[in-house]
Write a structure and sequence with these properties.
This protein has 287 residues and is mainly beta. It folds into 2 domains: 6-60; 66-287, no CATH class. The protein has helices at 35-50, 138-141, 146-149, 244-252, and strands spanning 6-14, 17-22, 25-32, 56-60, 67-68, 71-79, 82-85, 113-115, 123-127, 133-137, 152-159, 162-171, 175-176, 179-180, 193-195, 201-202, 215-218, 229-233, 238-243, 260-267, 272-273, 279-280. The protein binds zinc ion (ZN). Zinc ion binds at residues 98, 100-101, 103, 195, 197-198, 200.
């Protein structure tokens, strides 16, 4: 019996009336002039549906949070606070690396991830390979629920042939980031590009009135049975992202400043675009 699950709940208002609908089970609906009462009604329906008596609803778009035309900040995307380098990056992907952009081709191979130095902190970015691999301290992973962990495979990470306190997270499914209609995709410092050799794409979104560093996903790409955790791939790094309510729970369980995040916005499909990126044949950021 699930308890304390976090559920994405879509809402709209018209003629002084709110209409709410649960994303993972659209049969669960409520409407009325008071949004709090509608939320209580949905929570009662969740109890009947799956027995979760402590459901937490995350409204989409946020009712009192940060929203903008066509979307809203709904997720926190986990960032890293420390770095280490991969010792044997050539082995990490099935198809080795693209000779031009150096991004790994194909899926992650069975080769274990070995680090040149011992990281510190809860979340670490592993550089020297592309994409950057984000690794998580076991203390962080231990806070996650079984349902969240069922969406990923965890692999040990080594340094000097010793297993470290970190694990690599291999997602069974990732959600790609998308562009925001009307935004710019800055190309300076190769922040946005398409590799002319292998076709790999990576871009950052610069949109008016939206904090730089925000990334965007399409609401239709969130599975109907979305849990409070997803894995997002922006072409540079794959990272875990959590519904804001769930993220606040995790922050409450850790020491201050141990975790950082970047905003992840969900867009309705009318505001999604696939940017046409400048083709690149030389990469000066490769070290
Ligand atoms: Zn390439």
């Amino acid at each position: 019996m699930p308890e304390g699950g976090i559920y994405l709940c879509e809402w709209a208002a018209a003629d002084g009336e709110y209409r709410l609908r649960l994303r993972s089970n659209p049969d669960l609906q409520a409407s009325g002039p008071d949004i709090d009462e509608c939320m209580e009604e949905i929570c009662m329906q969740i109890i009947e549906w799956n027995g979760d008596g402590e459901a937490v609803l995350e409204l989409f778009p946020p009712h009192r949070g940060e929203s903008f035309p066509g979307g809203a900040i709904v997720f926190a995307r986990v960032g890293y606070t420390d770095r280490s380098r991969a010792a044997d990056y050539e082995q990490l992907f099935e198809g080795r690396a693209c000779p031009v952009c150096k991004f790994g081709l194909g899926v992650r191979s069975d080769a274990p991830l070995r680090l040149e130095s011992q990281p510190e902190g809860m979340v670490c970015g592993v550089t020297g390979c592309y994409p950057i691999l984000q690794i998580y301290h076991r203390e962080f992973v231990n806070m996650l629920a079984d349902k969240e962990l069922s969406a990923v495979e965890l692999r040990p990470v080594y340094q000097n042939d010793q297993e470290t306190d970190y694990v690599e997270v291999i997602a069974r499914k990732t959600i790609p980031t998308v562009g925001y209609k009307g935004a710019n995709y800055p190309t300076s410092f190769q922040r946005s590009f398409r590799c002319g050799e292998c076709g790999h794409e990576k871009f950052v979104v610069d949109a008016e009135n939206i904090n730089y560093g925000t990334s965007f996903i399409d609401i239709d790409d969130i599975r109907a049975d979305t849990s409070a955790m997803i894995v997002v791939d922006d072409g540079w790094c794959q990272s875990l992202a959590f519904l804001l309510s769930r993220w606040r729970q995790l922050l409450d369980q850790t020491e201050r400043h141990a975790l950082t995040s970047n905003p992840l916005a969900v867009l309705d499909s009318d505001h999604v675009e696939r940017p046409a990126l400048e083709e690149c044949t030389e990469f000066d950021w490769i070290m």
